[in-house]
């Protein structure tokens, strides 16, 4: 099969087209003919940092975590999937798991679900990692009807799904972004858009919550921005982050009694523990998508498998609005 492989790590490392043996569907796995994959920030981190990250695969490496495709083989002990099924999932591209930047992937059946019928392969491939992340964060925080929720980075990959899921749960949702395009995306998903470059935290907390603060803050920006999330949170509020790789003074969180939730959705893949939870979330998410409650937004340019390097550059350049997708 054709695959795009990395033979070195680093910001200048390039993907090379390689012929590899086609994998087989072992016990508990299905062999999927990959139709599309999407690029996530963690993919670019692995390419750039390599062995500095404990989750990076050994070289030569096939990256790509998200995919949508068609089942071609079903391994022993697999139920619920058959040859010809259209599926989607996040099942490789790290540690010892071959990724989706290849014509075929052998995926643990616990990590996949049937593709939303209303989505194209490209759209479905954009959803797994960000969808699971958003779902887990909101579930941990116990977001419910009537709450005020702030999503930091509401036009981003995780952010735009979190906005839609929080609204589906009945929350009143605000989200930060900047520039006309990002703000339009946020408003298009039914949230109140906040330009973080034009409004200070104190200003939008006063105008949108009467100075009480938000019940839940979902911070997809993380790092130093967590201080803004603490400032925006109400007393005893829930703060969720997907980016906690930082040293930070937690005093503001202490004096508000905040609960901090760190979501790292790759843990089931890395530790082979609780993988069935991801399959369940993807199945539930597919039902919401087909009911019209959630829809992934795709970035405009199309990239072929041979253009993976350009797709990574698109995401890292900060130009993308929506998920960057690679056709396989």
Automatic annotation (TrEMBL):
<dbReference type="GO" id="GO:0016491">
    <property type="term" value="F:oxidoreductase activity"/>
</dbReference>
<dbReference type="InterPro" id="IPR011032">
    <property type="entry name" value="GroES-like_sf"/>
</dbReference>
<dbReference type="InterPro" id="IPR050700">
    <property type="entry name" value="YIM1/Zinc_Alcohol_DH_Fams"/>
</dbReference>
<protein>
    <submittedName>
        <fullName>Alcohol dehydrogenase GroES-like domain-containing protein</fullName>
    </submittedName>
</protein>
<keyword id="KW-0560">Oxidoreductase</keyword>
<dbReference type="GO" id="GO:0008270">
    <property type="term" value="F:zinc ion binding"/>
</dbReference>
<dbReference type="InterPro" id="IPR036291">
    <property type="entry name" value="NAD(P)-bd_dom_sf"/>
</dbReference>
<dbReference type="Pfam" id="PF08240">
    <property type="entry name" value="ADH_N"/>
</dbReference>
<dbReference type="InterPro" id="IPR013154">
    <property type="entry name" value="ADH-like_N"/>
</dbReference>
<dbReference type="InterPro" id="IPR002364">
    <property type="entry name" value="Quin_OxRdtase/zeta-crystal_CS"/>
</dbReference>
<dbReference type="InterPro" id="IPR020843">
    <property type="entry name" value="ER"/>
</dbReference>
<dbReference type="Pfam" id="PF13602">
    <property type="entry name" value="ADH_zinc_N_2"/>
</dbReference>
<feature type="domain" description="Enoyl reductase (ER)">
    <location>
        <begin position="10"/>
        <end position="326"/>
    </location>
</feature>
């Amino acid at each position: 099969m054709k695959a795009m492989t990395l033979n070195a790590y680093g910001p200048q490392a390039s993907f090379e087209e390689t012929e590899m043996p086609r994998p087989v569907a072992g016990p508990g796995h299905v062999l999927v003919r990959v139709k599309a994959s999407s690029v996530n920030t963690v993919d670019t981190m692995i390419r750039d940092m390599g062995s500095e990250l404990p989750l990076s695969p050994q070289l030569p490496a096939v990256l790509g975590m998200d995919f949508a495709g068609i089942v071609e083989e079903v391994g022993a002990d697999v139920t619920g999937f058959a040859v010809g099924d259209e599926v989607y999932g996040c099942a490789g591209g790290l540690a010892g798991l071959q990724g989706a930047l290849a014509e075929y992937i052998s995926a643990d059946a616990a990590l996949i679900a049937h593709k939303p019928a209303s989505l194209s392969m490209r759209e479905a491939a954009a959803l797994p990692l960000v969808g699971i992340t958003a779902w887990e964060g909101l579930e941990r925080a116990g977001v419910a009807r009537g709450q005020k929720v702030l999503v930091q980075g509401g036009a981003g990959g995780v952010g735009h799904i979190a906005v839609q899921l929080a609204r589906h749960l009945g929350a009143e949702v605000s989200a930060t972004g900047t520039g006309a395009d990002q703000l339009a995306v946020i408003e298009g998903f039914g949230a109140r858009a906040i330009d973080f470059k034009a409004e200070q935290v104190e200003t939008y907390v006063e105008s949108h919550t009467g100075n009480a603060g938000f019940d839940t803050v979902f911070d997809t920006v993380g790092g130093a921005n967590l201080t803004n999330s603490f400032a925006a949170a109400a007393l005893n509020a829930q703060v969720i982050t997907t980016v906690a790789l930082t040293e930070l003074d937690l005093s503001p969180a202490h004096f508000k009694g905040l609960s901090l939730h760190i979501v790292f959705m790759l843990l089931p893949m890395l530790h082979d523990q609780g993988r069935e939870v991801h399959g369940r979330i993807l199945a539930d998410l597919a039902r919401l998508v087909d009911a019209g409650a959630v829809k992934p937004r795709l970035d405009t340019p199309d990239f072929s498998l041979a253009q993976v390097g350009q797709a990574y550059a698109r995401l890292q350049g900060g130009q993308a609005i929506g998920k960057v997708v690679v056709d396989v």
